[in-house]
Amino acid sequence: MFNKIFTSPVLVRVVPFAAFAALTLLQGRLGDASQYWIYALKTIVGAWLLWLMRPYIKELKWAFSWEAVVVGVAVLVAWIGLDGYYPMFAERSGSFNPVRTFGDGSAMALICIAVRIIGSSLVVPPLEEIFYRSFIYRYLIKSDFIQVPLNRLDWKAFLIAGVIFGIGHYEWLPGILCAFAFQWLVLKKNRLGDAITAHAITNFLLGIWIVARDAYHFW
User: What pLDDT, on the 0 to 100 scale, is given for residue 93?
Assistant: First the structure.
């Protein structure tokens, strides 16, 4: 099975994301506590799959730049600042709230918060950037997407990939804007690493904001 995945440019970029998304659908469906232990499980599974796939995805490399920092912070501001100013397609469950479930300051609450921030900052960014910016965007341009350079601009693919990313989040409007910003980084730098870093910065700072402001509806 793994040999087939490793030799397929599509599967090696899709399987880690698909496995992570599948586990996400199970959160909260196997009892209230499953909201937390399944998040921990999918973080471990996602990290393991990324580790296995990394030799076969040459663009899977973190990179740091001042543009990545600016974009990461700007996306955070948009994500928080636009909240309440646009219609939602679905009601947010707000079920991932370990403080409410386990008690403020409890060890279990702190562990769940730490796992969530680590997972969203270190595992989610490479998973999503590989899937959306490396695969989906380029596949929309050409089915043999490996032949499409990362810095090739195609407005149709740019818009469609951004919308697909956005509607995969409750916060669909900032999600679309964030996809455009991350894709711009990939186009500008001709590499995926800056977008991964920007994504990580956004998610990490958002996690800190959520905990500091008791804004668990974002999770």
Answer: 67
Report whether 133 contacts 168 (CB < 8 A).
Answer: no
Q: Are 175 and 165 in contact (CB under 8 A)?
A: yes
Task: For residue 219, give the nearest of 122, 83, 107 by alpha carbon.
Answer: 83
The residues, ordered by sequence, that sit 6+ positions from 56 with a Cβ below 8 Å of its Cβ are 6, 12
Return d(Cα 196, Cα 125) in angstroms, integer: 5
Q: Which of 4-18, 91-105, 118-132 has the highest mean pLDDT?
A: 118-132
Write down the H helix ranges in the chain: 2-6, 11-26, 34-53, 66-81, 98-102, 107-118, 124-128, 137-141, 155-167, 172-189, 193-213
pTM: 0.95
Q: Which two tokens stand for residue 122?
A: 């270190």
- Using CA atoms, how far apart are residues 145 and 109, in angstroms rounded to an integer? 43
